[in-house]
Design goal:
single chain; alpha/beta; Rossmann fold; 5-stranded parallel β-sheet; globular
Length: 174
């Protein structure tokens, strides 16, 4: 059985987490790995239904995703989590619990994320229709030492995907 690990994609809404994580997961599957993708929006409607967006609820959501990643990882699956996960302490909690944890910071200036915002969430947050929106009126705590940084305002999706896969190989997981 192959060694499982967790690829944890974190960054602002609109930074490119879903796009990059989906392509990485697809490539790993093509290479014969067992992969499970946990996207923040899908998790919110299923695993974390009923949770709001207070700091406590956000932390609980991230811990639930981390718990699923831990189960998958220990059973030889590559868990690919694509969640904003704005608070460093919750990400660090999952890193400790999971062990084989690779943090991918999908970094992008908030101004660029706003321009990419297909759902209009930043506009609603700035208009006061959404309270506690990460990057507008709630903080995003940048990772201090992520294993991988994808600067999506400067590099193509293909370059980011290649960077992630290359670094995962360097770390000995592939």
């Amino acid at each position: 059985m192959s060694k499982g690990f967790t690829l944890w994609f974190t960054g602002l809404s609109g930074s490119g987490k879903s796009t990059i994580s989906e392509r990485v997961a697809h490539q790993l599957k093509k290479d014969g790995r067992a992969v499970e993708l946990l996207d923040g929006d899908i998790v919110r409607t299923n695993l974390s239904k009923g949770l709001g967006f207070s700091r406590e609820d956000r932390d609980e959501n991230i811990k639930r995703v981390g718990f699923v990643c831990q189960l998958l990882t220990r059973n030889g699956v590559v868990a690919v989590a694509s969640v904003i996960s704005p608070y460093r302490a919750a990400r660090d909690h999952n890193r400790k619990k999971i062990g084989d944890f690779i943090e991918v910071y999908v970094r992008c200036p908030v101004e660029i994320c706003e321009k990419r915002d297909v759902k209009g969430l930043y506009q609603k947050a700035k208009a006061g229709e959404i309270k506690g929106f990460t990057g507008v009126d709630d903080p995003y705590e940048e990772p201090l030492a992520p294993e991988i940084i994808c600067d999506t305002d400067k590099e193509s999706v293909e370059a980011s995907v290649a960077k992630v896969l290359s670094r995962v190989k360097e770390l000995g997981y592939l």
